[in-house]
Amino acid sequence: MVGAAEEAQLNRLETQVDNGGGGAWEYLCHVRKLKARRPDKVLKHGLSILNNAKARSNLGAEEWTLYEQVAIAAMDCQRLDIAKDCISVLSKKFPGSTRVGRLEGMLFEASGAWADAERAYERLLQDSPHDQVIQKRKIAMAKALGNIAAAVEYLNKYLEIFMADQDAWRELAEIYVSLQMYKQAAFCYEELILCQPTDPLYHLAYAEVLYTMGGLENLQTAKKYYASAINFTGGKNTRALYGLCLCSSAINQITKGRNKEDKESPDLQSLVAEALVKDYKKKAPAKLPLVTNTLKSMKLIS
Amino acid sequence: MAEDLVLDTAIRDWVLIPLSVVMVLIGVLRYFVSKLMRSSQLPDAKALKEGQVIIRARNLKSGANFIPSKSFRARRVYFTNEENGLLYVPKDQAQNAQAQMFSDPNMAMDMMKKNLSMLIPQSLTFAWVNFFFSGFVAAKIPFPLTQRFRAMLQNGIDLSTVDVSYVSSRSWYFLNLFGLRGLFSLILGEENAMDDTQRMMQMGGFGFDAARSLAVEKDSLDIIQHDWALPKMEQRAEEVLRKLLR
């Protein structure tokens, strides 16, 4: 994930480079470091360095890193000819390298030769069975082909070893949600919350899964997680606010007429409703009547 | 000790400078030799997994209060149960870990290579310096020093009357041996400059004992009291919203 300050710096560098202010290499290094995905810019500026023999030789050994970066960017932009050139340069320089083999596999993928890509990855995995990137490529490929079951299977196998990989957990969680396997998704989101206990987005996603599962207990838990998402975002996340409204109205419906004593924090729901109304008043006054009506029908405001 | 010793300029030309140059060259040579000999070892699945398990267990420990207690307990059982828990290491296996490390030929080989690449050139140069240049003064530093520096600067000369600012040739060798790190990091790049002092330190504690750190994580997971932080969050969210609405 990219921090705000780093992204601002990246954008500043980008405008500088775009306007011919130089610093292309710095920009490319930055993109690589932050793992940002801006293939068009990378392709443009990377190529301008690669086509300039002097600038290229100034990079020293970093030249090959740039080739790799440009190759991947080119694949992102569907400029397969450029990617092919870069990769052939690399494979001439590093014959038999796993990293170059990976790029070749990706080129197969980009050109839609799935079977070839699969074969290439399998061969690479035989040499280095614990290469994370190749395993991830395989998962991505299964997903791209619509073979979700295989993607889930690969992901599970991957996570059995690399169980501290947050991105993989997130991917798995999203896939499970798309498959409506909420219990499994909830587990993944719990894992994500453990990795990043104060990330509001994970709390929000977890709450949503719990809310979708339904049942009083889950709803109450979901409400708590919505509340914590509100807490971490300072009440600025509209989705969390709506979620909390929905949760509390659902809870109210279930517990209606039953024991009233454990009716928790009626303040919170009205506060949330108020916050929503205020937010809409400020940012989208045209939609305000709609929101107030909805909230009224949920009996959250009078 | 009134008058200064006069050092022959031939000493500078034939001892001081050659010695430094040779030390630098040997450092560079050794870097390339060790690069050649370094076997790119594949990390094996077990070690990889153990590292990841430890990270995940630590996450669980630090974030425990953010997940419902049911989920926490399920995870704890998953990690620490005595049948197939991830952190549980059977007794007999734990003892064998050390022995296994030694019996693993790859690891022993690697260590030997590392040590050889360090020891051989070092002992050779030391013998060379000792044989040709021992026992005389090779340089003078341009400022006075206290007696305590004698051991450092005049190794190989057992004269207490020589001023401390004179450096013996063998000491010059040692100064180069330990002091060229900065130069190597300039020549070979930052991370490549592994100087001898570091290597010597590394020899002491090689490898980490996975079984032990797994056991440590297991114990600390076992004693965690789960205290769900979320109920408090509702109140805090209320406060946040109150502030927002004000």
Automatic annotation (TrEMBL), chain A:
PROSITE patterns, per the entry: TPR
GO cellular component, one term: EMC complex
Domain EMC2 TPR-like: 99-209
Domain of life: Eukaryota
Keywords noted in UniProt: Endoplasmic reticulum, Membrane, Repeat, TPR repeat
Regions that span the bilayer: none
Membrane topology listed for this record: Peripheral membrane protein
Gene3D superfamilies, per database record: Tetratricopeptide repeat domain
SUPFAM superfamilies in alphabetical order: TPR-like (SSF48452)
Cell compartments where the protein resides: Endoplasmic reticulum membrane
Residues in TPR repeats: 166-199
Function recorded in the entry: Part of the endoplasmic reticulum membrane protein complex (EMC) that enables the energy-independent insertion into endoplasmic reticulum membranes of newly synthesized membrane proteins.
PANTHER family: TETRATRICOPEPTIDE REPEAT PROTEIN (PTHR12760)
Protein family (similarity comment): Belongs to the EMC2 family.
Assembly information from the UniProt record: Component of the ER membrane protein complex (EMC).
Descriptive protein name: ER membrane protein complex subunit 2
Source organism of the structure: Dioscorea zingiberensis
Automatic annotation (TrEMBL), chain B:
Topological relation to the membrane, as annotated: Multi-pass membrane protein
UniProt main location, coarse: membrane
Pfam families associated with the record: EMC3_TMCO1
Subcellular location: Membrane
Domain of life: Eukaryota
Transmembrane segments: 14-33, 116-139
Keywords of the record: Membrane, Transmembrane, Transmembrane helix
GO biological process, one term: protein folding in endoplasmic reticulum
InterPro entries referenced in this protein's UniProt entry, alphabetically: EMC3, EMC3/TMCO1
Family annotation (SMART domains): DUF106
A Gene Ontology cellular-component term: EMC complex
PANTHER family, sorted: ER MEMBRANE PROTEIN COMPLEX SUBUNIT 3
Family statement: Belongs to the EMC3 family.
Protein name (Swiss-Prot/TrEMBL): ER membrane protein complex subunit 3
Native source organism of the sequence: Dioscorea zingiberensis
